[in-house]
Amino acid sequence: MAAQEIRPDRGAYVRAHAWMAAIGMGGAMAVLWIIDSPHIWTGAIGGLAAIGLRGWYMASEELAAVWILTRESFSGPAGRSVPVTQIEAVKTMGSYVQVVTKGGDKHLIKYQADPAATLNAIERAKA
């Protein structure tokens, strides 16, 4: 098996932030409703602005995270490296894939266009 690069997908990144914005907008509006504010609609603007700013600010860092999968190791950003033999479990969560080691360490591969394909590639490397 040749080394396989696992990269984040811009579309998955935008979709994840759209969901976060919707939840943030609803949550902020709910808080303003609970405290009986006459300006509940400002929660929607604040939630959208907060997540939009976060998405814009973090995009270059999040979309540059590359994981390399070989038969021997799974390595990623910030010098993270896991021998494939030490991978205990692989799970999907939305557009994320979580790798759990036998030692209990957890690594999150974010914003995958096809999380099931990423999970399957890791499982194939383990076999």
TrEMBL record:
Keyword Transmembrane assigned: yes
Sorted UniProt keywords: Membrane, Transmembrane, Transmembrane helix
Transmembrane segments: 12-34, 40-57
Protein name stated in the entry: PH domain-containing protein
